[in-house]
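Its record is retained below.
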Amino acid sequence: MEAFGNARTLRNDNSSRFGKFVEMSFCDQGRLLGARIDTYLLEKSRLCVHGEGERNFHVFYQLLCGATDEHMKKFGFDDPSLDGLDGLELANEFQYTCQGGAPELREWNDEKAFERTLIAMENIDWTKQKVDKVLSVVAGLLHLGEIQFSRVERDTGEEMADIVVEFEKEDRPKTEWFGGIDAHHIFFEGMHKNKDNSYTIHWGS
């Protein structure tokens, strides 16, 4: 399950990008009674930006390398522009997985690692439906990373972001890419452009 919190860095192919606090309990005689581990401080910035020679979290590459044909279609990785690409070649087509220029690990294979990740999910009693939802969120994040913004200036001189490319109807984010969440409604239909070119998102609409 480290696939969701570990990533390749310049020094380590499997560096944990989150903090761990280990609390250990001992009896009066000094014998270990038990321990508790808290995880915190996930390096969320790595999702959007990582350095040259590094990678995003392993799970993104594992999904792209190990996904079945069913998953490829379900999660929108079967676009005609991606025909003939698979595995690490496919990873180079997404903004969130191509930045570091080093998608391949030195010590193990992403496809086999994905099999182990799925086994780990099964071992903690995740249902197939739950696994699919989690993977759909992973896929959805990759698609969200393809949205491009430009910097524009309001009449007041204040800078803001504008969406460069609008999705065509057939290319809009689908609910199955985000674990059942209607991402298009939240990010686009719920996003209204104001007269000053700013955007207001109506989360409850």
Remarks:
- The two ends are 35 Å apart (CA to CA).
- Confidence is low (pLDDT under 50) at residues 201-205.
- The CA atoms of residues 76 and 177 lie 7 Å apart.
- The first helix runs from residue 58 to 66.
